[in-house]
Design brief:
The protein is α/β, with parallel strands linked by helices. The protein is 31% helix and 20% strand. The protein has a nine-stranded mixed sheet, with helices on both faces. A five-stranded mixed barrel has the order 20-21-22-24-23. The protein has a three-stranded parallel sheet with strand order 10-13-16, sandwiched between helices. A hairpin with a 6-residue loop joins strand 20 and strand 21. Helix 9 runs parallel beside helix 11.
Length: 665
């Protein structure tokens, strides 16, 4: 390799992948003709005519291989050439290498270094398909901002796009299978009558990070592969792919990338709900989980950039904001502002029964203090957060949630299993007893809180007794929502390398069906207990019901859905004092609108949703005050308080038809 060529490669990395260290590797794969039998091997050799280490499969020695079957890939990653690459490079004697003439040696053409301005994609359109978690939705909005900034425009349909991105998930095998099926669909378009108009295909996200080689080697399926930390480089990668006709990948993991300086371009700007990423990565290293390998170590955005974006979303009319992170409540801002503004609140673990496999660091602003500041920006904007780890719920965080009307009483508490033995194998860092203690603490401090969880059945070595422990935990806790799956082995994880996936598939499925049934029974019990609460539910109107377009659907504080009729309602809860209640005619009543907060009295429930009757338009502040006074029992003094009329359906709930509750201030 010439020195000039080497310098050119280093220049590429320095200019385009700021704060990353990696190596651009050109991989040559010889794909045998259909009549040949392909082999899978990791051995490689070095080609001195390439700009970086060149990897060639053993099938290069097969005489049936032709130049037309050769596929070249350019990969930017954290890992350089392997020991095998070095050993193979010594098979050629230095004396046999021709001498290089520096006067005739030129660096490789690096197509994107000569780009003018930011309009690299001018005239080209992209389309994004999102799979997986809410973090992928937020990543898509970051991607859209990057692409638009480079001159690309978003297509309304993949048929009209020059590049189709699939933002992928790798958490389970089924998620990856969906992507492979979709790639097969796109490949058929490439081979069809309109192949000249077929778009480039890019695979992004966790699956890209995990399966970069397999994706690039998939015949005519993928042109670009990019991991979650390298989205800034996508316009450049597209330039390389279009210019060189080679597959290209950037799967470098970063120690500091948070995209804090990029304002996401919202997928649905008309929506009253939004997501905001506050941290990325995970340090927990649970034995079953691939996230630390696809998303990297934890790093948090600085508090000022978060507060600025929250204010922007508030100004845009957002009323329901979800803070995101792979381990969101492990947030720790160690920037100058984060350290200086922190008072050290919320740095402890949930209770003494929780621990970590890594050494926790001191200093910086923790999640409790961040949530405090976020909630003060707009008292009429609800704040949620996901996905947390049970170890990071200090008592201070729970008291903050209980004291702020706009911090939703909804907590995701991924248990994964109810067996202490299985939890230990999963490296979760707690026992079932510690988890129960945390649940009790949460429900004591935050009354009416809605709990959700994740569960895995059939984990390595799980016995019938372990399964019974999980079922017992679910019966005792009774979650309002749960995500339940069979164990799916992930290569590279601790369980994938060290533990035996020894539970038969039919047993996994049976156990999954067991816990699904228990969940639905428990959720129905919890929901039915909420039917007809005197204060009702404060619901954000999100749209029309899919099943009945004449009815509205909205989300309550606890995150559950409520469907209700399109009635004329009171303008405020307090207005019931002078309106004569629900039976007082239509005078002064208002139409329900998208984005309204509406007081709804629930009339029935299943294990997944509620039916209800809308009463009045309200605000978070007014509804919270009403709840508080009602809980205090301050009822009956008509002259000194505001009245709240219950709808006619209240008589069916045992609350008294057409009754008016008079709440004193």
């Amino acid at each position: 390799m010439s020195m000039l060529t080497t310098r050119a490669c280093r220049l590429v990395l320095r200019r385009t992948l700021v704060s990353h260290r990696g190596l651009a590797t050109t991989t040559n794969t010889i794909v045998p003709p259909p009549s040949s039998t392909s082999t899978d091997s990791s051995s490689s050799s070095t080609n001195n005519n390439q700009s970086a280490s060149t990897t060639t499969s053993p099938s290069t020695s097969t005489k049936t291989a032709t130049d037309k079957t050769k596929k070249k890939h350019i990969v930017f990653g954290n890992r350089g050439p392997s020991l095998q690459d070095f050993l193979n490079s010594t098979t050629t004697s230095p004396s046999s290498k021709p001498a290089l003439d520096p006067t005739t040696t030129t660096p490789l053409d690096i197509p994107y270094l000569s780009m003018k301005g930011r309009q690299l994609g001018q005239g080209s359109k992209y389309f994004v398909e999102v799979y997986g978690c809410q973090m992928n939705v937020n990543d898509t909005e970051i991607l859209m901002a990057i692409m638009n900034g480079a001159g690309y425009t978003k297509a309304d349909d993949h048929e009209d796009a020059d590049i189709v991105f699939l933002v992928t998930c790798a958490i389970r095998e089924n998620a990856e299978t969906r992507i492979w099926n979709r790639l097969a669909d796109l490949k058929r378009k490439r081979l069809g009558p309109l192949k000249d108009r077929a778009p480039l295909v890019g695979v992004l996200g966790c699956m890209a990070e995990r399966l970069k080689d397999k994706l690039l080697d998939s015949d005519k399926m993928v042109d670009l592969v990019c991991g979650p930390d390298a989205y800034r480089s996508i316009p450049h990668l597209l330039s390389i792919s279009e210019t060189t006709r080679q597959g290209v990948a950037n799967v470098m993991l970063s120690a500091d990338e948070t995209y804090a300086d990029i304002v996401p371009l919202r997928i649905s700007p008309e929506s009253f709900s939004a997501h905001l990423s506050i941290m990325r990565g995970c340090n927990n290293m649970c034995s079953f989980c691939v996230v630390p390998f696809t998303r990297g170590n934890e790093r948090s955005r600085d508090v000022e950039s978060i507060l600025k974006e929250v204010k922007q979303l508030s100004d845009q009319g957002v009323k329901d904001l979800t803070l995101l992170g792979q381990n969101v409540n492990s947030y720790r801002d160690t920037s100058k502002d984060g350290v200086e503004l922190s008072e050290g609140v919320g740095a402890e673990l949930s209770n003494p029964g929780f621990n970590t496999i890594y050494k926790r660091k001191d200093g910086g602003m923790r999640f409790t203090e961040l949530l405090d500041k976020v909630s003060l920006i707009d008292p009429e904007m609800r704040i949620r957060f996901t996905s947390p780890h049970p170890k990071d719920f200090p008592t201070a965080l729970l008291h903050l949630m209980a004291s702020r009307p706009n911090i939703c009483s909804q907590i995701h508490m991924p248990a994964q299993s109810g067996s202490t033995t299985v939890l230990s194998k999963m490296r979760r860092g707690y026992s079932r007893e510690a988890y129960f203690e945390l649940v009790d603490n949460i429900r004591t401090i935050v009354p009416g809180v809605a709990l959700s969880s994740d569960f895995i059945t059939g984990f390595c070595g799980e016995t019938d007794e372990d399964h019974k422990d999980t079922m017992d935990l679910m019966r005792r806790v009774e979650y309002e929502m749960a995500y339940m799956f069979m164990y799916s082995r992930r290569e590279g994880t601790h369980a994938g390398r060290r533990l035996q996936d020894d539970v038969p598939e039919d047993v996994k499925l049976r156990r999954l069906q067991d816990i699904i049934g228990i969940f639905h029974k428990g959720a129905e019990n919890r929901f039915r207990a909420r039917v007809g609460l005197p204060a009702g539910e404060c619901v954000l109107v999100e749209g029309r019901s899919r099943r009945d377009k004449s009815r509205w659907i909205g989300r309550a504080d606890g995150g559950f859905k409520i469907v209700f009729d399109d009635d004329l309602i009171l303008p405020t809860i307090e207005s019931s004092l002078t309106s004569g209640g629900v039976g007082g005619g239509e005078k002064g009543r208002v139409q329900i609108k998208l984005g309204d907060y509406v007081q709804v009295v629930t009339t029935s429930a299943t294990s997944t949703s509620f039916q209800g009757k809308a009463v009045a338009r309200t605000s978070l502040t007014e509804f919270s005050r009403f709840q508080s006074l009602l809980n205090q029992g301050s009822v009956g003094r008509m002259s000194s308080g505001f009245g709240v009329a219950l709808p006619p359906v209240a008589s069916q709930l045992g609350l008294g038809g057409h009754a008016t509750l008079n709440i004193s201030p």
